[in-house]
Design brief:
- By secondary structure, this protein is of the alpha/beta class.
- It has 2 domains: about 130 residues, no CATH class; about 130 residues, Fe-only Hydrogenase (Larger Subunit), Chain L, domain 3 (3-Layer(aba) Sandwich).
- The protein is about 35% helix and about 10% strand.
- It contains 9 helices and 5 strands; from the N terminus they run αβαβαααββαβααα.
- The strands form 2 sheets. The protein has a 3-stranded mixed beta sheet. Strands 1-2 form a two-stranded parallel sheet.
- Helix 2 links the parallel strand 1 and strand 2.
- The N and C termini lie close together (about 10 Å).
Length: about 260
């Protein structure tokens, strides 16, 4: 958008990616040790390397993410060691943010960001409990998915673009003033991050569908499936960030974009 459609930047969410949110919070919480911390993120996307290098991603005063390794690169590193990763048993993540919800898991599939957001938006806007969190109308491998969500009488139109080719049509409609959508998710890679450029090869359609199925299976089996139910996120706001959209939240969880020719 910065390069091709800078006139639409005001429509782009200012929220950092989860990778950058975690990094900025981690280094701010340990700001007296920030210059000694070396933060490594393991990602399915090669574009994350560019994101981490953006000048804006230094809320702590230092580069928030020092190094990004793709899942394929990590696999290569494992093969250089005597470890048999397949025999390593599961264990809990460390705090900060060691707890996670199903909403966080489904971010990796096309439509997952939209579904995760709507699970929380529904409850925040209506004040009611969303009993069925399986918002299947935004799931799937279709190039474009559309839905109308009823927020207790308020109708919200959403769209999910599964690839940049589909996003191009939406951008043209927005510029023409004919887009009916209030909220749009765009995934560059078909299928979402599970088919990212840093993922294991070959990344066939069948492989991507298997990964998507695994993601939704894990989501379905978790006790917490809405982002705002995460106890560690609640604690983070109570003890540190204080409130959504507050000064500290804006400083650490948001960014800005500008037109560029590069």
């Amino acid at each position: 958008c910065e390069k091709k459609h800078p006139e639409l930047l005001h429509n782009v969410s200012t929220c950092r990616s989860p990778m950058e949110m975690f990094a900025s919070v981690l280094k701010e919480l340990n700001k007296y040790e920030s210059q000694k911390l070396f933060h490594v993120a393991v990602m399915p996307c090669t574009a994350k390397k560019f994101e981490a290098a953006r000048l804006e991603m230094n809320a702590s005063g230092y580069r928030d993410v020092d190094l990004v390794l793709t899942t394929r690169e990590v696999g290569k590193l494992f093969r250089m060691t005597p470890w048999d990763v397949a025999k390593v048993g599961p264990s809990n993540f460390d705090s900060l943010l060691g707890a996670y919800t199903g909403a966080g898991v489904i971010f990796g599939a096309s439509g997952g960001v939209m579904e995760a957001a709507l699970r929380t938006v529904y409850e925040v806007v209506t004040g009611k409990t969303l009993e069925d969190v399986n918002l299947t109308m935004v799931r799937g491998f279709d190039g474009m998915k559309e839905a109308e969500v009823d927020l207790d009488g308020t109708k919200v139109k959403v769209a999910v673009a599964n690839s940049l080719g589909c996003a191009r049509k939406i951008m043209d409609d927005i510029k023409a003033g004919t887009s009916p959508y209030h909220f749009i998710e765009v995934m560059c890679c078909p299928g979402g991050c599970i088919g990212g450029g840093g993922q294991p090869i070959p990344s066939t359609i069948d492989k991507r569908k298997e990964r998507i199925a695994a993601i939704y299976a894990e989501d379905a089996g978790l006790p917490l499936r809405k982002s705002h139910e995460n106890p560690e996120v609640k604690l983070l706001y109570d003890d540190f960030l204080k409130e959504p959209l507050g000064h500290k939240s804006h400083e650490l969880l948001h960014t800005h974009y500008a037109a560029t020719n590069k």
